[in-house]
């Protein structure tokens, strides 16, 4: 029988002590971590960048096919992605969780293993949080803190006409992974005897369950001394994000379908599901890639980086926002990004 | 009929725009607020203090008797209390909420009115957050950020033997307010026709529904140039907090029952309910007063402040932790503080 320890046996303070017992501070800026009314950080003449996200069971994740360790990892990573999208370096997080009495200490431990794995990989310190009961479901709230040289942060609203529009990695895979997992869940619920065959789908499933934040790209841009003119992360689908940058920068935009990076595994999965791969990239969400604009003269510095694709350019606002399709058509770009409020729970 | 606007009509971004439309930045340290991947703060050579709390419907609050505006206010205040308890000044908060489809825009608006009222009163900027659906119930996660002159923050673990043990305001009223509200709820559920008479109970109800953080005390201590040797806020009941300071400072403690400040209204309410007022103060929780220790030579500076009571002193660890009762007895001090994990939901 699997081990099961009731969380109520520890009490809240015992639980916090238990969950934070192995923390080792990684950042000099972390003056005081977990264990007091608040944590203290000292950014030594840098600016502090803050971002926060809430993840709710049944809305943002399904514990039927999400391993808790991956969930812990992803909860951290999606917040770090926001910090990188400011061109900043994440340094600390706080993590609050609420969970029902159904959750055992072993389960919570698995979740925190993922949290600590992400903290270690990205060099951030867990400096605080809260644990509490919920009436139903697992709820996660993460706040990420980062640092940046004063006024080097990159907003969404500062793209310039003529700037190149770039995106990192590839798009649509996380959505296809989710589609596959949802399909297999449905099959399993209808015929519990059938074992799902996910063997050759590890890429798209991995992109859904264990995304990474593009620290490597921020490092690369710094090495190349490129400061993007605008940047954000791709969490809600490419088209929605492009329209955010265009609208907030008061510009038009031209996007080329053929330039949108899509992995071979994603194309094959899309084909199987009978979905257009481009639609997955435009509207799928949860890719956690970086979308940024930069001056044309920086093009030579990025051209050899296979992780960066130039997918279009920023135009005058009078030109609107359009996508040029592979078939030679020109369509108005519309946001069909993931919207938590329209989602079926 | 009451107006009701569905939140799904706005979409997530529309909702965030709507809820944050009136924000005016109050702190020079707020370089960039709501609307990008992250906010940016610049503390100009100060240290940054961070605290976070999660509040869950049915666990931490009951919407049957909690007005949403008060809930918004309290959600902010309980976090600011943690920042003050570090001897720091709160400057920014992030606010994440998850709510079911039952919640209308008007209801959410009321909640945010309370949030903004607290922000204005305490001079903090709302710089970010997240809004999302929940499967059930209203969930609130707040992170508060504050600033302090480097290394002037006050921990729980630094009390010294012989220090005076002090507490602000009065204790137990919030618990008595909760007891009253729960009793009236029960009566109402059993006999819906009976209108509750809460008229002469405004003090204890107010302490429960709309607590304040002790900014005034932090200001006073700074004016008097007193730096407490240890400090925390009283959220879980006095005895639990005293034991935190004693344990973390590796000290014993002597507490005098007769010195524990309890309001006349609380004494009367306790009498009505047949509860010992001292038990309410020791174990009640949610008072959000400040508990601190200070050097004996600072006594003259606080003696005239009616908002500060000296309730005991820190002793050698070999003396243990004891309370001297009014009746002349000496009992071991035990933590019976509020514990979210043992609470009946």
UniProtKB/TrEMBL annotation, chains A, B:
Keyword Transferase found: yes
InterPro entries the record matches: PurM-like_C_dom, PurM-like_C_sf, PurM-like_N, PurM-like_N_sf, ThiL-like
Domain PurM-like N-terminal per the UniProt entry, residue ranges: 35-148
Catalyzed reaction equations: thiamine phosphate + ATP = thiamine diphosphate + ADP
Gene3D superfamilies in the cross-refs: PurM-like C-terminal domain (3.90.650.10), PurM-like, N-terminal domain (3.30.1330.10)
Pathway the protein acts in: Cofactor biosynthesis; thiamine diphosphate biosynthesis; thiamine diphosphate from thiamine phosphate: step 1/1
UniProt: Mg(2+) 3 binding residues: 37, 82, 233
GO biological process, one term: thiamine biosynthetic process
Annotated residues for binding of ATP: 112, 129-130, 156, 235
Domain PurM-like C-terminal per the UniProt entry, residue ranges: 161-276
EC number of the protein: 2.7.4.16
Keyword Transferase applies: yes
Keywords: ATP-binding, Kinase, Magnesium, Metal-binding, Nucleotide-binding, Thiamine biosynthesis, Transferase
Binding-site residues for Mg(2+) 1, renumbered to this chain: 52-53, 130
List of residues binding Mg(2+) 2: 53, 82
Binding site residues for Mg(2+) 5: 236
Binding residues for Mg(2+) 4: 37, 51, 82
Single GO molecular function: magnesium ion binding
Annotated substrate binding sites: 60, 286, 338
Biological role stated in the UniProt entry: Catalyzes the ATP-dependent phosphorylation of thiamine-monophosphate (TMP) to form thiamine-pyrophosphate (TPP), the active form of vitamin B1.
Additional detail: Reaction mechanism of ThiL seems to utilize a direct, inline transfer of the gamma-phosphate of ATP to TMP rather than a phosphorylated enzyme intermediate.
Sequence similarity: Belongs to the thiamine-monophosphate kinase family.
Name of the protein this chain belongs to: Thiamine-monophosphate kinase
Species for this entry: Chitinophaga flava
Lineage: Bacteria, Pseudomonadati, Bacteroidota, Chitinophagia, Chitinophagales
This protein's encoding gene: thiL
